[in-house]
Design brief:
The complex is a heterotetramer, with 2 copies of chain A (about 210 residues) and 2 copies of chain C (about 230 residues). In chain A, about 15% of the residues lie in helices and about 25% in strands. With about 210 residues, chain A is an alpha/beta fold. Chain A has a single domain, classed as 3-Layer(aba) Sandwich (Glutaconate Coenzyme A-transferase), CATH 3.40.1080.10. The chains are: A alpha/beta (about 210), C alpha/beta (about 230).
Amino acid sequence: MNKLDRDAMAARVARDIPDGAYVNLGIGLPTLVADHLPEGREIVLHTENGLLGMGPRPAAGHEDPELINAGKRPVTTLPGASFFHHADSFAMMRGGHLDICVLGAFEVSVGGDLANWHTGKPDAIPAVGGAMDLAIGAKRVFVLMEALTKEGRPKLVRECAYPLTGRACVSRVYTDLATFDLRPDGVVARDLVEGLDIDALRRLVDLDLRAG
Amino acid sequence: MNKLDRDAMAARVARDIPDGAYVNLGIGLPTLVADHLPEGREIVLHTENGLLGMGPRPAAGHEDPELINAGKRPVTTLPGASFFHHADSFAMMRGGHLDICVLGAFEVSVGGDLANWHTGKPDAIPAVGGAMDLAIGAKRVFVLMEALTKEGRPKLVRECAYPLTGRACVSRVYTDLATFDLRPDGVVARDLVEGLDIDALRRLVDLDLRAG
Amino acid sequence: MIDKIVPTPEAAVEGIRDGATVLVGGFGTAGMPFALLDALIAQGATDLTIVSNNAGNGDAGLAALIAARRVRKVICSFPRQHDSWHFDRQYRAGEIELEVVPQGNLAERIRAAGAGIGAFFTPTGYGTLLAEGKETRTIDGRDYVLEYPIRADVALIKARAGDRHGNLVYAKTARNFGPIMASAAALTIAQVSEVVPLGALDPECVVTPGIFVSRVVVAHEATPPSW
Amino acid sequence: MIDKIVPTPEAAVEGIRDGATVLVGGFGTAGMPFALLDALIAQGATDLTIVSNNAGNGDAGLAALIAARRVRKVICSFPRQHDSWHFDRQYRAGEIELEVVPQGNLAERIRAAGAGIGAFFTPTGYGTLLAEGKETRTIDGRDYVLEYPIRADVALIKARAGDRHGNLVYAKTARNFGPIMASAAALTIAQVSEVVPLGALDPECVVTPGIFVSRVVVAHEATPPSW
């Protein structure tokens, strides 16, 4: 089978973001989604450190240390942008004003629980940032992640083993093998990659899936 | 005895407002205080509908319906002014950032309870506005009122009969007869008007006062 | 392409339903969206719950909506004014409900709705008639009342200028409830004196980011004085 | 006459006491008040509780304060970064306390302190390790955690420009925690790139009204990149 590469994964998410949407892209893989937004759609990007209307990375030499995204990387503004402080920015998220938030994850449960902030290892220094706010901070929360760990264990699971970031908050999971809709009546898998059928996918992720 | 007139009452309050103070002057008699602020002091006036740095009434013909005070009268701005929305404005009050708030009252109790919003009459339409926020909305809350009702009943009382605006919030009461400091160990009267002594004042207000 | 500009106040108020909860901006007449209220009267929605600082001034704007008998209930801080005769008459006749809320609690409850806060402890109103029956708690020696968010179906607000993304800036003390009401309604409709091109508003000075605004309409109207 | 301008960062940090709780602005290096932190190190106050989004970057600013062993406890959302080595080392050695707070709860708790809110119910963190032992409540079918304000003795923040009343405007995403921290401390100290005459800041665009600010000092410094 032809697993999707990171760009192809990001493009799948990007394809599903409608014109006019207000979107927050989490740190890491989700950030790539910005590079694949379809032409002709106007999508407003939010970064939780206080900016709506975030534009792409500036040209080399034009970086401004006071204009950064949540990953602390230099960005730009687009026409129509606005700056605001942290309480206002997180109010915007918590209040459900963003249409879509795309996050990475260690694990997602079929019930939509998200684990993406803490490995739970005793020697790990805990650091949550905005992860828990993002988990509950949009009308729809999508996860973008590889379907399997490097060791081949599925990351979409019945119950998360890692400490949770939020409960019952994820509605869809985009992976390098397929897209999974987490519904109250079960998980629907669709857009399986070339060379992968639903039975093979069921075995790989060890879940009772319906084909969508 | 020589009761103070309204301007003289307002001037007594104004005299006690220090340079650099942030002050909210309630509707009615307290508004007069602005006309008596001593020369050479810079005092910043707050109006709870969203302005710090309020200036005097504009010249006739220069009124702006979108630049008003909490009494819905036209005002101006002074250099250094700022506008903000209602949640921010009342956060400023509730958070204890104003130094002094000067309010009118129906009654004040010796324990600092304030009644100034509602007569409690069955046919009265209740209307509170910012009164309860102002009552708790400054480091010090002063009341400016006549010492006696038109019928001669004292307005500084052991317990308020009118519905309360706030509990234990008033620290000083300026009147046309004297100024009263409400202290945990009792009421101290000072600045008695000419021709009034402490015994006469005790009889008038029917309270056990100490001379200050 | 995002274009929230609609051509007329009539188009702006389309779809407001009977029984809706409607936030109405303004402190007295400053910030009152007269054109939107006129359009709402023409549109016909009734049985409304209105959340606003006052209960109408004179015969225009919110007062006209009340006079047209479209309002079932008013949630406000200060209904009784020298010129609130339409509200006063219906209230005394038992024809309109009233919930009086201290002004700062009203503002904070609206803000809480927009900010996803489930409830908050406020010192304002503690020990008064307006806190009767409400949950209270002493925290660090201070007494508080628990207050809940006020969410709405619709917000009608007025701003000075807006762009096609719905970014807004306000005029002086007419800002009052606009920014928080914009955040607390499913459908936020702003009338503006002027539409400006995207990018014309300084990102440092935008007061209401467009994410909170659904529709923007130009209305050329002079604000009647509140005094 | 109100004049909050002080001549030097050293004068600006005067009076900060051992054991103080200090809010430190910034998200990474953007908005981090380096000059004030350098002055605080020179001033000598120790046993501090620091509230900030991160736990220091590299060897400057908050990281230098931690390296100088002046910090007893850090309350932050994201201590662990590629360049938070001073914090990491002390944390692993058990020499510094840590309270991790979700970023939005951190912001809202600071805002609540400034706004006189006694506590609030937030959905963020519900059902996670960071809500263990905290009071919870279901309101209208949604689950919330009760969170309390974070009040401070001192706030150290950075703004773009200020005037002698302490009115402030910020630079882009360096605004971050500045406005809310300014409201939550007994003593708020702002370093600015520029002092402007009173009246030069547009009242419509002032972000932090001067009432929240105690001292303003000019510091000419380039913000080091966070990346």
